[in-house]
Design a protein that fits this description.
With about 350 residues, this protein is an alpha/beta fold. Among the domains are: about 60 residues, no CATH class; about 170 residues, Ribonuclease H-like superfamily/Ribonuclease H (Nucleotidyltransferase, domain 5, 2-Layer Sandwich). The protein is about 40% helix and about 15% strand. The strands form 3 sheets. Strands 7-6-3-8-9 form a 5-stranded mixed β-sheet, with helices on both faces. β6 and β7 form a beta hairpin. It is elongated and about 100 Å long. It starts with 13 loop residues before the first helix and ends with a helix.
């Protein structure tokens, strides 16, 4: 049954609506006043007013009911918002967070989460940290370079030694096979800046000290198996240093055949080239396909950890690299998370199943 029509203005407040509408700027208040005006004129029903204002019929009905019962005070009451749980930030801690953000101390929300959790014992989820940052009008911005000649260092240098190599077999059922993906990354004392959380309207500053010194990091991640990782720092990249890195990978397990997938760079030796370890075989990714190599994700994580810092020397930078890389050779699950369970993992598992089947008596 249709709803009975009731008087919209039982208390005679129509004049107030017209007067308020004349001086009300555009916004939600004017929209409500216009809905009541159309209702008072009586030319449109609820459906017509809703279509005119592009609103739902129930929304127009609610506005008219507010005016009918409470007049303009009820009609122009601000919309109620969900309150949600109370913030766990004390005023002192909120101010400390604001000062840290103003100084550009947090590049990611996870950094703010770590600071609040470890130093202040605040047990909240990462999503709550985003809420704290956004409610405080924080925004991620790229810091402006600020010349500086001092930096922080720590850790120890990366190992540079390499081992020996046994005789080369083919891929035979008698020997285990270990599959790797490998790549190289250049690192140096040229500043790397990335966005940090900051206050809106405040441009954060980042210390820089540009110098033309660099090195190259070779890295290899094992697909499946033990999820091992191998790294080697070199002053440059060429066939000689690539061969040293392959010797290091082959020496990790001399009794296995190591198959490496990497790109077709000119300083990468070809499979079967003279001087290569006998237990290392090489395969190349398709040209111009870095998205296929999971090691690229590791380089991105390293740059996240090295950015917005000044290093006193290349040795200090290598110490910082070692600190960031250590979890990858000590915690195999980190390597597994980089490899994932996509096409590479699926194809490797298929190959290993076939290889183990061929080894069965």
């Amino acid at each position: 049954m249709a709803r009975l029509r009731r008087p919209l203005d039982p208390h005679g407040r129509a004049t107030q609506v017209y007067q308020q509408l004349k001086r009300e700027p555009a916004g939600w208040r004017r929209e409500r006043l216009l809905a009541v005006k159309l209702g008072l004129e009586g030319e449109l029903d609820l459906e017509g007013i809703a279509a005119h204002l592009s609103r739902a019929r129930s929304c127009i009905q609610r506005w008219l009911d507010l005016f009918r019962h409470d007049g303009l005070d009820g009609l122009l009451q601000p919309p109620r918002r969900g309150q949600g749980p109370a913030s766990q930030l004390t005023p002192e801690l909120a101010e400390a967070l604001r000062q840290k953000v103003a100084a550009g101390a947090f590049r990611r929300a996870a950094d703010a989460h770590r600071w609040l959790t470890q130093e202040h014992g605040l047990r909240v989820g990462l999503a709550t940290i985003y809420t704290y940052l956004k409610k405080s009008r924080r925004a991620a911005q790229s810091p402006a370079p600020l010349s500086r000649k001092a930096g922080r260092v720590g850790g120890r240098s990366l190992p540079r030694s390499a081992g020996g190599a046994p005789a080369r077999p083919g891929l035979t059922p008698e020997r285990p096979v270990r599959l790797w993906v490998a790549d190289e990354m250049r690192y140096g004392l040229q500043p790397v800046t990335r966005r940090v959380w900051s206050l809106r309207g405040l441009r954060p500053l980042c210390p820089v000290h540009p110098r033309y010194q660099w090195g190259y990091l070779y890295g290899a991640l094992e697909v499946g198996g033990q999820s091992h990782a191998e790294f080697l720092c070199c002053p440059t990249v060429n066939l000689d240093y690539s061969g040293r890195f392959l010797e290091q990978v082959g020496a990790h397990d001399p009794q296995a055949t190591h198959v490496l997938l990497w790109d077709g760079a000119g300083f990468h030796p070809a499979d079967g080239a003279a001087g290569l370890p006998d237990n290392v075989r090489l395969l190349a990714f398709p040209s111009y396909s870095p998205e296929l190599n999971p090691v690229e994700k590791l380089w991105d994580q390293l740059k996240d950890g090295l950015c917005n810092e000044v290093y006193a020397s290349l040795a200090a930078l290598e110490q910082a690299l070692t600190k960031l890389l250590r979890p990858f050779w000590e915690e195999p699950e980190r390597v597994g998370s980089l490899i994932g369970q996509g096409w590479l993992w699926a194809q490797s598992q298929r190959f290993f199943r076939q290889h183990s089947t061929s080894m069965a008596p």
